[in-house]
TrEMBL record:
Protein's pathway: Amino-acid biosynthesis; L-methionine biosynthesis via salvage pathway; S-methyl-5-thio-alpha-D-ribose 1-phosphate from S-methyl-5'-thioadenosine (hydrolase route): step 1/2
Pfam families for the chain: PNP_UDP_1
Catalytic activity, EC: 3.2.2.9
Keyword Hydrolase: yes
Name used for this protein in its record: adenosylhomocysteine nucleosidase
A GO molecular function held by the record: adenosylhomocysteine nucleosidase activity
Record keywords: Amino-acid biosynthesis, Glycosidase, Hydrolase, Methionine biosynthesis
Organism: Parvimonas parva
CDD domains documented for this protein: MTAN
Top EC category: hydrolase
Superkingdom field: Bacteria
C-alpha cells in the first residue's frame, strides 16, 4: 500500500475529489482508493510537526503502507528556487530543533545517530523523471527540505535556515512525517512546490499562489504511484 499525506485541503482534496475513494474514520479521516491497481491511502494531517507525526503514525498503524509520500507547498530558502518550482526532498532536517548547548549539532535529535533523514533514492529518481513531463528541468530541484513549527516570513529567519542547513525550501511537516516513517521502516519522500519566498511577502504570496503551486505536485503524483 502507498500512503499520500498533505497538510492542507488545497494540497490534496482536488485529487481525492477526482478519484473513487472510500472514506474511513479511525480517529483520523483517511481515504482509500485503488489507483493503477495499487492500494492507496490518502489523508490530510493538518499543519505542524505534531499533527503530521501523529497522523503518519496512525496511517502506518491502521494501513501498513510500504511507502509514504508527503505532498504540498513550501517557502523557498534558496535564491535559485522560485515560486512554482518543484523541490524533491533528498534529505530532511528540523531547522528549529536545537540541542547545541548539550553538544549536539543543530537539528540533531539526541539518541539518533544522524542529523538528517535521507529519502529513498529510487523514489527521488522516479519523481524527477515524472516531473520532467510537466516542468522544464530548470524548475525541478533535488535537495534539502527544512521543517519547523514556524511559518517563515522574515528574511533573517530564512537566511539562518539556509546557512545552517543549505536547504532549498522550508515548511512545517516533511521532516516529522519522514522521521515517523524512518522509525517504522517505511520508505518515504516529500515533494514540495514553492508558494512563496519565505520573506516579508510570504503571507501574501502564499494566499495568492498556494492553489496554483499545489497543482505542480498534483500533476505528477498519480504518475509516480503508477510506477512504484
Amino acid at each position: 500500500m502507498i500512503g499520500i499525506i498533505s497538510a492542507l485541503n488545497e494540497e490534496l482534496m482536488e485529487i481525492i475529489d477526482k478519484i473513487e475513494t472510500k472514506k474511513v474514520v479511525k480517529g483520523f479521516t483517511f481515504y482509500l482508493a485503488n489507483i493503477y491497481d495499487k492500494d492507496v491511502v490518502l489523508g490530510i494531517c493538518g499543519v505542524g510537526k505534531v499533527n503530521s507525526a501523529i497522523y503518519t503514525q496512525s496511517m502506518i498503524d491502521n494501513f501498513s503502507p510500504d511507502t509514504i509520500i508527503n505532498i504540498g507547498v513550501a517557502g523557498s530558502t534558496d535564491d535559485a528556487v522560485k515560486i512554482g518550482d518543484l523541490v524533491i526532498g533528498t534529505e530532511y532536517f528540523y531547522h528549529d530543533f536545537d540541542c547545541t548547548e548539550a553538544g549536539y549539532t543543530m537539528g540533531q535529535i539526541p539518541a539518533l545517530r544522524d542529523v538528517k533523514f535521507i529519502a529513498d533514492k529510487r523514489l527521488v529518481d522516479l519523481s524527477y523523471e515524472k516531473a520532467k513531463k510537466v516542468l522544464s528541468e530548470d524548475k525541478i530541484f533535488k535537495g534539502i527540505i527544512a521543517t519547523g513549527d514556524i511559518f517563515v516570513a522574515k528574511k533573517e529567519i530564512k537566511d539562518r535556515i539556509k546557512k545552517n542547513f543549505n536547504s532549498l525550501c522550508c515548511e512545517m511537516e516533511s521532516c516529522s512525517i519522514v522521521h515517523t516513517c524512518h522509525l517504522n521502516n517505511v520508505k518515504y519522500l516529500a515533494l514540495r512546490s514553492i508558494s512563496d519566498n519565505a520573506n516579508e511577502e510570504a503571507d501574501c504570496d502564499f494566499e495568492t499562489f498556494v492553489a496554483e503551486s499545489s497543482k505542480v505536485v498534483k500533476s505528477i503524483i498519480l504518475d509516480i504511484i503508477k510506477e512504484i
